[in-house]
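Progress narrative, Year 2. Work on YbhB/YbcL family Raf kinase inhibitor-like protein from Rhizobium mulingense advanced from sequence curation to structure prediction during this period.
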Amino acid sequence: MTLTLISKAFAQDQPIPKKYARAGENLFPPLAWSGAPDQTRSFALVVEDPDAPRGTFRHCGIANIPAQWTTLAESVDTAPEQAPRFYKNDFGNARYDGPQPPAGDRPHYYIFRLAALDVPKLLTPDAAGIRAMWAEAKKHALAEATVTGTYQTQ
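Result:
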């Protein structure tokens, strides 16, 4: 079985609703996945904009998502128990910050990448940021899935 990732908020390569954008309600869009390998011990997620003017911009990084989870709810950052670990994004916040491309730019693509990991926790320090967390996650990845949405500032 192949790891798959979807969002009920937007379809593959379709616009992300404004409520999930930084200028909207800045809510984390709901995600669901299936097909994780049997050896999965945890998950990690990164949200990236490869179309940013200065190169890939990371909007969110989450590690230590429990292996038994198959969803992240809208606004997952408010989950009280077994909360996954958020890493500082390129805005400098340890949370989700939604799309915010420059006004007038063509639509940007936002890639949500989920990795099934063979370890229960990543030990990357919070201060290391998303780039370091994802590099460590890739060393332990059993499978990866993506879902991509677009966003354009009007």
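The chain is about 5% helix and 35% strand. The two ends are 40 Å apart (CA to CA).
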